[in-house]
Give the backbone structure.
Amino acid sequence: MKISQIIDKIDEKQLFVPAFQREYVWKRQNAKDLINSLIKDYPTGTMLVWDTNNPPELKGKHKYDERQGTVKLILDGQQRITTLYMLLTGNIPPYYKQEEIIQDPRSLHVNVETLYLEYFRKSTMENNPIWAKLTDIFMGKVRLRDIVEGIEKQNGGERISRKHEFEIEENLLAIQKIKDREFVEQIIPTKATIKEAIDIFYIVNASGVNLTDAELALAQISGYWPVARDSIKQKLTALESKGWVFSLDFMVYVLLGVMHNVGSKMERLHTDDNFPKIVEVWEKLENDTLDYVFSVLRSNAYIDHTKEINSVYALVPIIVYAFNKGKTKMSQIEINKAVKWFYYSQIRTRYVSQLPQKLDRDLKVIVNDDNPFDKLIAVIESERKLEIDKDEFVGIGVSHPLWGLMKWYFKSKGAKCLSTGISISKTMGKRYELEYDHIFPYSVLSGSGYDINNRLKYSYAQEITNRAILTSLSNRTKSAMMAEGYLKEVKQKFPDSLKLQCIPDDEMLWKLENFELFLENRRKLLASELNDFLNNLTDSKVDDVNVDVYDMIHAGENHYVELKSTLRYDMKTNQVNKELEQVILKTIAAFSNGRGGTLIIGVTDDLEIIGLENDYDTLSEGNKDTFELHLRNLVNTSYGVGFAANNLTITFPVIDDVEICVIEIKQGLKPVYTNVIDKYGIKSEKFYVRSGNSSPALPTSEVASYIRSRFDVFS
């Protein structure tokens, strides 16, 4: 079916999207890539539709009437079709509302001389005849004659060549021809039931049909290096036999990191100009670097297998660093620094989100910095404090990364199985594999109210501070012995084994009635010893490390960093929205009421640096001076001139050729309240604080105590 026909069928109420489909989730870059592929006549996939006269609920306002007969439902391809509908017609398709289009692609423009695509920027595109809005071209609002006359006027009346004019004409035709491109239809027949159609929908969308970026990259690599997949899988099998279990995806990230020092641009591995370099790199990884790194981690970080690791992707920077060291290998100091960073990357969950972007940032440090692991520790500290607090143990189970750190620490001390006295670093056969068991047996605790019916007490029973490391044999023989009797027996047989696993020696704490007191004491003991363990691994020159704006952006939002797309321009409605200004003020107040922080404007939630052009266009002069003046006036009005002058530092760095705004907010000396007006027009004062990567209003009942604890030093 031609794209123009698809658009017509949507308008004629013959083609719909079922309600069970996901929403429009494409980013603006996806829309740009689609149009670029269509212009170049590249394949753009198929469209899966269901012909039915008994459709389920439809998206949008339209209700099916059986008099319509058979209609078509889009099961796969709706992101592409929705994008094309918006770009070809300039409208939102009838099955969506404006507010459901999070990233609107309709400001996409094309350079008619080069066919380069970019979203509208006033500074480069306004009154520039070579830039045309795609939608205007599709709708016939852009004429070749107008473009030519515009170029000639810019050139002082000088006529352009016939060849130049012909090239522009060909480019316009290439864009117009998109409407005639065919989307191959795969059709589910009318006889299919709703359940069958939904089953097919989920098979297509959620069962591995959509390749990951790494899988796609590996497919491309195999095109110019046919044995790549088999070679990597052989190495994965060899590593697995030693306890190191990785996916193909992981190894592709390693290849990307070593060859291109990035984590987010898998397409760099797609082209055959990587060959034969990639073969050379893999041979070194396979025969030397990987085994070396894992051997170092086993002997210096006490990691016996990947089951103990929260995120294996933290190994990528270490592998890249070791690869670049070559035959000289890492010194003991370098190993200690790498291990220390690795531990912090695990307990502070460095790679839980935004993996490619964070690898970009971290690998940049690895290849460019003289003390890379010191700086990487500083990056983590900019997001979360390094020191472990005893309260972090409250209610957490064995899936938490602190459990991994506990095991590594216990191994470093030469800890023993409590029942057999065997070192937990040297297991011997399946009967002696390591397991974790409750110190206070759960069967006993559940009879005392610590069961699933009381979520808080149940979490205490499962807490890692109520766990000890045993061999599987001793775990089974231990059974459900009361903690008091069991620990006394352990103390007699292996006197130092309790201390080596940070178990309090006070026998009064071993009594069932003192269970929660036991947990509290072990939390304190673990926090103290783990902090000492990490600090004593090696000195880190954290104070000498500066985290630049680029690093902040690609580290993502956290307790001390907030990212905002705009100050006042609403990207959904394409107009000024003063409510967005209130969000900026709220964030500034929250940082001031907390420990200070950095607010960056001109960066989306997806870490796309879009700059300030949209905001500039809403202001009289349209530059950073009027932007800063407007921002300071907002702050002056809300919090006073003194606050704006003394508490804010505003700069406009250029990142990736785009100007953004960085606001450094100092830790305030006085509480700051924000006036807000609700939807009923009622004004009230709110006290905002920083909590993780958000800025919530503190409940009125908690404000006074917070102020006393936060500002008492200044009172």
